[in-house]
Every structure is written in C-alpha cells, then in structure tokens.
Amino acid sequence: MTRRLGLAVLASGRGSNLQAILDSIDSGRLDAQVALVLSNTPRCLALDRASEAGIPTCCITRKASGGRASQLARIHDALVEADVDLVVNAGFNLILSSATVEHFRNRMLNIHPSLLPAFAGGMAPKPQRDALEHGVKVSGCTVHLVTDELDAGPILAQATVPVLDDDTPDTLASRILVEEHKTLPKVIQWFAEGRVLIQGRRTYILPEPVQQQTARVAG
After folding, report:
1. What is the bridge-based pairing of β-strands 108-112 and 138-145?
2. 97 falls in which pLDDT band (50, 70, 90)?
3. What are the φ/ψ torsions at residue 108 (nearest 5 degrees)?
4. pLDDT tens digits for range 118-128
5. Do 47 and 59 touch, CB atoms closer than 8 A?
6. Virtual CA dihedral for 61, 63, 67, 71, nearest 10 degrees?
7. How many Cβ atoms from other residues are within 10 Å of residue 96's Cβ?
8. N or C: which end of the chain has fewer CB within 10 A?
9. Other CB atoms within 10 A of residue 204 CB
10. What would the DSSP string read from start to end of the chain?
11. pLDDT-wise least confident of 29-38, 101-110, 147-156, 202-211
C-alpha cells in the first residue's frame, strides 16, 4: 500500500480548515493523514477537533516557553520530530522562524483570505475589510508556499467570490471561507499525487506525477 501524505496542521482558532481537511480524508477525496495538530493558543477549538479525531496535539505558547525565541525553537523541533511530508498553516497567527521555513522549503502551505498579492498580511477579518475599503469587485482566497516574506510565496491556487454591494467584512469572510474549505484540501491532494512542479515563483499542476514526467523526458 502506498504511504499516505503525512501532514502537520498549524491552527490558532476554530480550526474550520482543519475540519475541511479531516472531512476530505474521511470521504476519500484526500489521500493524506494528519499526524499532528499544533497550536500556539490554549483551549482553541482546533485542538478539540483534533483530539476528537484521535490526532496527536501539541500546544506551544510563548508564556510557557519563556519567550518568543524559545517558542519558535520548540515549534520547529515538534514539526521536525513529527516527520511529516507537508506542513499546513490553516489559520495560524504566528510567523515561524527562518530555520523552520527553510527546513520545510516547498513543503509548507498557507491559506490567506484574499487574492494575493492584494491585501497581504493580517488575519481575518482584516484582509476582507481591506478589500471592501478598496472597493474591489472580486475577492477570494489563495493557497501559497510559505517563504520568509509574509504572504508572498509562490501561489498554488486561488478561488474567487464576488463582492456584493451590501457585504460586510463578516459576510465576505463567510463566503470566502466556503472556498477555502474546497481549495486547501484540493491543493494538498495535488501534493499527495506528486503533481506539483515548482520553478522559482511559478508553480505548475501536472497531469501526472513529476517523477513520471521526468522519466518521459529522459526517455
């Protein structure tokens, strides 16, 4: 049996994107296994969701770690020890260390509630509020690779929603969230299938695994 893609999911809040991942796994649409759910927020709903699903959890706070540097080092060690294929930032409100980003280079995803590079930075509802204040007609979400530059890594997928005349940050956020729950598991499945090709800032989703593409060219 082929080994399923191992995931570590990082979340700081309610964990709705984590739940979308778990639901996609349960339904057979995502060939992956969540090996660890890590949070920096005690008693957050994401940890509860993981515990109910029998998934190992880890909560590493700044206070308990004795400062930010120690917290980031502990998070790094926990992720490395988990020995996962992909790290997924799913509503995680802490910027990781450069060492962690480099260790998981091209293997760490983030989902952001805007059409990057527009309205980068900040957690919901800030990007949605910024979109409304700028009068955009279309908004959405972006799944991208994590780099040291905030919300600026190579883009893997985007999904759009119309901005309505009577939208508030909350109503816009709710419609974007529906697309987040579809887009994030889809991108993870591309990785599980080995179909993601990364060339600098450009990413390509191939019709078959990268190894097969390479073998065809070599032959």
Report:
1. antiparallel
2. very high
3. -135, 125
4. 999 989 999 99
5. yes
6. -20
7. 21
8. N
9. 12
10. -PPPEEEEEE-SS--HHHHHHHHHHHTTS--EEEEEEEESSTT-HHHHHHHHTT--EEE--HHHHTSHHHHHHHHHHHHHHHT-SEEEESS--SPPPHHHHHHTTTSEEEEESS-TTTT-SS-TTHHHHHHHHTT-SEEEEEEEE--SSTT-SPEEEEEEEEPPTT--HHHHHHHHHHHHHHHHHHHHHHHHTT-EEEETTEEEE-SS-HHHHHHHHH-
11. 202-211
Residue with tokens 């091209």: 106
pTM, entire model: 0.93
Tokens of 20: 């979308």
Mean pLDDT of the chain: 94
Instruction: Give the residue numbers annotated as catalytic, written as ranges.
Output: 112
